[in-house]
Every structure is written in C-alpha cells, then in structure tokens.
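Troubleshooting log. The previous structure file for this entry was overwritten by mistake, so regenerating from the original sequence record. Sequence copied from the archived sheet and checked twice against the printout by T.R.
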Amino acid sequence: MNELIKIKEVSGKYNVSARTLRYYEDMGLLTSTRGEDYAYRMYDEAAVKRLEQILILRKLNISVKDIKRIFNTSGSEVVLEVLGKKVDDIDGEIALLHELKEIIMEFISHIRQADFSKDADVKMLYEKAKDIEGQLVNVDYNGNPGVSKARRLVEVTEKLRKAPEARIVKINPFRAFSSGLKTMDELFGPFNQWQQAHNHLVKNLIYGAPDFLWFEEDGRGEWIWAVEDWVTEADVAPQQLITFEGGLYAAAMSVDGDDESGGWVYERIRKWVVEASGFALDERPGHQVLCHMLNPYDELKVALGYHQLDIYVPIKIREDAASLHINPYPRFKLESPSASRTVNIPGENRVYVTEVAQPSSWAVAFCELGRDYSSKHITLTFSAEVMRVGAAGNLCWNINNSDYPVVGNSIENAAVDVWHTMSGTWTGTLTDEWPKLSLSSWENNSGDTVYFIDKFNIDME
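Regenerated output below.
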C-alpha cells in the first residue's frame, strides 16, 4: 500500500518549508495529492523520493531550471551535462584565482627587492602602480610584446568580481488593503481570489503593482496591495484598509518560492548591512523583512525559468555613519584593551554601542591610526558620546605620541547614567611608531567602571 504523508511531516523531516514545496510543485518538479476528506497536500512514496533527488541537486547548486531539464529527460545525458558544466565553472574560477595569485606574488617579489631609500626603486614601484591604474600597454615588464601583467590583472579581477550586495530603496508611506495574518493556503487561496476580483482598486506603477508580503515566526503571512487615492474602507471590505509606514530597505533579488535561495539572499544582505555599510538593521516593531514579486508575468517566467522575488530588509542610517569612511576612504575602528562588546540600548534607540568593562587602569579605548601615519604632520578632528556606570573617574583624549598630550575636552568625575560629548581637534606631527588616539581614565579613577561609547567619529587631514 502506498502510504500518503502529510505536508507538515514532509516539511519537518526534510527541513524544507511548505512554501518551497509549493514552489517545486508550481515548477512541475513535484506532485502532491489531496484526499476528499483532507484539505491539505499529501505526498506518496514516489513524490518523497523525487523530493530527495531535488534536495540533493539543490545542495550541488544546480538551478531549478536545470533540475527540470534533468527530470524531463530519460537517461543520464542531461544530468552529466549539467554537472560537467558545473565542474567547468569551478575549474575556470580556480584557474582565475591561481592566475591572480601568481600576479600578486610577482608584485610582492618586486616590492621585496625594492629599496625604499633609493629614489629609483620608489619611482619603479610608482610606475607599476600607474600601469595597473590605467596605462595598460600591451608589453610586459621586460618590454616584450604581449599582454601586460597589469592588463591581465584587471581582466582577472573583473571576471572574479561579485555582484553588488544590495541596493538601497526608500519606500514612501502608502495606503493599502491588507489580508491580515493568514496561513499560506488562505493567502494564496481565498485572499488571492478576492484580490484578483478587486484588482481595479490597485495602484499600478511603471514596474507593476506595489504589493508586499511578509511572514511571522508561526508561518502565517500578511499580504498588502497599494490602492488608488479614492479607495475607501467600504471598497475593500471585508479586508482591512491600512497605511503602510514605509522606510529604508536594503534589497536584492531571489527566486520566488525557493526558501533556500531566499535565505541565502537575506543572509547576504544582512551581512553586508551589519559588517560593511553605513546602515544598521531597523528592528522596530512593524518593520518586517518584505517580499515583492517583480513583474510576475508568465512569459518572463518561461524565459527565465522562475519568477523574480525581491527581498527587502528594513534598515536605518547609522548615527555614526560618517565615522565609518566606507570605501574608498580609510575606516578607523574604536577598540578597547579591556573586556568589551557591542550592545544595543533599545530604550534610547542606540545601536552598535561599545560597552567597556574597565578596570582601574588608564586606557578605556583607542583608535589605531596605523604605522603609515608615523612622522606625518596631520590634523585630527574627533568626537564621541560617553556614559559612565559604576565607580567615579575622569576621562580625556590622548594622542599616543612621545609626550602623550591631552587633547580636546575632558570629563572630570562624569555623572553616572548621563551621556557626555567629548570632542576636540589636534594638529601636530605623530612621533610614535604606532600612533593612536586614546580615550583614557586618569587620576580619580577609583575602581572598576563600565563605559558606553557611542557616535565615535574621527576625521584626518
């Protein structure tokens, strides 16, 4: 007897969401059945085995479009062709990486041989740098015809360049009808039918209808559609008429229904926001991760093999964004020699605050300027907001120089649980081999203290 398995059991056993199972069915990769007395999808033994094949191929990073080709062809020719092409792609990238490594090693060799005390060697390295930047003549470094190392370096790095992590989108507030929280079957069943019957209420834009879908932890979702200005509550009954707040979002494209692809895209956006941008995640209530189907037309799906799904992650501009000096500018980080961590203070709407558990010693935190700035004549402009919790203590800024001058405004016996602004400007020559800007405790530091440091900003000329 061919026993039927409920969709919930299949989802739990293989760690794949009901939404992804629905997607595989829509793509013609999987088939389910429904009993007369049971409203939900069920799978027989053959469907479960097919799902196992799909999941294995997806783990090998085979596209759904190619998986469909494999299943629609008898024999092993197509699967061997697809896997062979995947191996060729990997070999090509490995070869490019090896070539890039060889080019870099050659530059390292030239640099190691150079004597920076000799003007001629410095000039030689400068000329090589110019060659990389733009003077890509077709001769090698010995004057022989052919593709120069610099030109090949540019070609290799262009081929290895990854797509941008995300684009930043501002969504303005808009009025919309909302499904309210519903199950997947309710959203894509009765509500979807109601929406199609009331499509005349929807506000259409250049790229299509502005509709967004998001999901809660319990698997239910809410679907909203922007409406024309004249629409009233009576027009959308029994659905809800709401005003969507909008905001800033970091967005990137995924594949509709494929949670593995969506999860990867979401993690990529989140990693970029947290680690390499001037933004922070906006985790206030009502600011959810949104999904939007971009131009969901069947003819586009036939050509692409899937529907395009944009994922929007809510973000906000970091208050200390100016201090991050996002590329191509240098990025200075505030560090601590003591026990420290990054925390959020939700009640004050402060994120990425440095918390320092400071024993009774002098260095609370410091900014490493770097050895390259030693002996340089510079102007530093800096500021931070600091709050003290615990023992009494005085704070000041020091330049890690031979005379360790106190710079900017100091805080004597700073009040507990109050934010203090500490700022200043210093012009001079950095005489230390490893110059730093240090936030220091001095004199009346009576014991262990906790400091919170926020909005750190440093500019250098």
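Residues 77-113 form the longest helix (37 residues). Archived copy saved in two places this time.
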